[in-house]
Amino acid sequence: MTSLKWWQTAVFYQIYPRSFADGNGDGIGDFKGITEKLDYLSSLGIDALWLSPHFPSPNWDCGYDISDYTDVAPEYGTLEDFKTFLTESHKRNIRVILDLVLNHTSDEHPWFLESKSSRDNPKADWYVWVDTPPNNWQSCFDGDAWTYAPERGQYYYHYFMKQQPDLNWHNLEVRQAMWDAVRFWLDLGVDGYRLDAIGTIFEDPNLTPHTVPMNLVELRRFSETAQTDEEKKLKDQYWQDMFKRQLGQPGVHELMKELRAIIDEYDGDRLLVGEDDNIDYMGDGKDELHLVFNFPLANTNRITPTHISQNQKERIARLNQLAFKGWACNTLGNHDRSRIYTNYGDKIHDAELARLNAALVLTLRGTPFLYNGEEIGMTDYLLPHISQVKDTMGSWYYHTIVTEMGVDPEEAIVRTAEMTRDKNRTPMQWSSKPNAGFSPEDVETWLPINPNYKAGINVHDQEHNPDSLLNYYKHLLKIRKAAPALIEGDYIPLHETAEEYFAFLRKSEKQSVLIVLNYSEKRLELNFSKELTDKKLHTLFTSGVRSQVSRATEKLTIAPFEVFMAEVRA
Ligand code: GLC
């Protein structure tokens, strides 16, 4: 296993700083809190953290609108607190990567304040300015993509909210300034970056208008009300057509090369992982990104054996075709997506499906990324009142459909609660104490706590229950660490057309492991004798009761929803 880099063997865990742990009792997560929870993370068995933005921000997009790239948001602590957190993480052999937002800054960043102050200031060209909106482009969060700045009498472009103006990456000074910020944190010892929304950095130079007969709010509404298959197909087409001139444009590869060269000046194999599923961003294996996410695996409402099998066939084949044999990176949840437990549940077997999906991400070939709270089965929490909504793309949508489209406020809040990302960002549930042990009892937390913390969905209760989801994750993480095939082994699909279960081998020089994930409520009798001739199965892990059932390759009994892993030996 020695030839692999640390980011190939590691399991990552995403921390959403605002919601992870509140160390000073003000209702908002912070570095003191995160540092106090490092022993918890060690005991969970993860190896690296991805921290969502921790920089000063007016929080129009929960930290993804940065007003200072080289400091810590005061509500999260000080730079000293950050350094303590980093040192303490490294002491526990936990690496830390930060979030790097390249496409845009906050509209309160000094660069933008200066840029918008006049047409001839030194930073006049640092953002994307035009005299009049040249096209009908939309922002993916809040309507028109061009917003007027009276100080200049001009419009600026923003792919996200109007408080997130796009930087002009054609300007070399912009690059220099951002690379300085990148070095600042690398100098402090961080282990790399997750690159935010890289596909949005450049726009079509011809500014070609989109052809969708709707604006953003109308398209969102149309998507919500689409009933027939035809309407559903049309809405997918519209989403693609609306933004295709604003995404994935030329220029990103060169930029990634520049960034990679900087990262490589540092020792310790620092990592770049892109928020994109385009494998081309891995360049020649040495000159762009180390990893891109396998989002297509997650982009479904139902994880089924057929879906996984298809996904792996496409992704692994493409990675293997690359001269450098690209490394996969799998995830099912993050701060932008409905929680795994809710999203992929069927409302009857949610608990079983959550276990299967955890096993899936932790056994597929590639680096797994987990999202804080998934290990205890946190679910989406739909906010009942518009006053509680913090994700401003959600409140913008609510007010627009109520005031401009006449949608009934009662329906509007239901729709908004579903679409905002607040639902999957509620505070981490640490115990069954008031406020889920996240904040002291009398404090109002920044987002409401999901009340299900009282029903066992919290760390403390689950630590004391051997059958809990948390202990299941811990167990799986231990198995993974001890099984070289699960880390470095090739992926070999078995019984590819099976619709009820997903079976595969992970095979390295040292070891071969069979994994069977039964996504059905049926008890299965499987025969692997053809694929595993003269071999025996030695159980590594099972979520079923296995004492009286067969383990022979020609007659392997698998219980409903069972996760089964066995070492294949002569
Ligand atoms: C990325 C982030 C998301 C953010 C957006 C704009 O997609 O994951 O949370 O809103 O970029 O920065």
| Structural domain count | 3
Sheet/helix structural class: alpha/beta
Radius of gyration: 24 Å
Give the low-confidence spans.
none
> How confident is the prediction overall: mean pLDDT?
97
Distance between the amino and carboxyl termini: 22 Å
What is the overall shape?
globular
Strand order in the largest sheet: 11-10-9-3-2-1-13-12
Bound molecules: alpha-D-glucopyranose
How does the major sheet shape up?
Answer: 8 strands, parallel
Write down how many β-strands occur, each being a DSSP E stretch of 2 or more residues: 21
Helix content: 25-40%
CATH superfamily of the largest domain: Glycosidases
CATH class of the largest domain: Alpha Beta
Strand % is: 15-25%
CATH topology of the largest domain: TIM Barrel
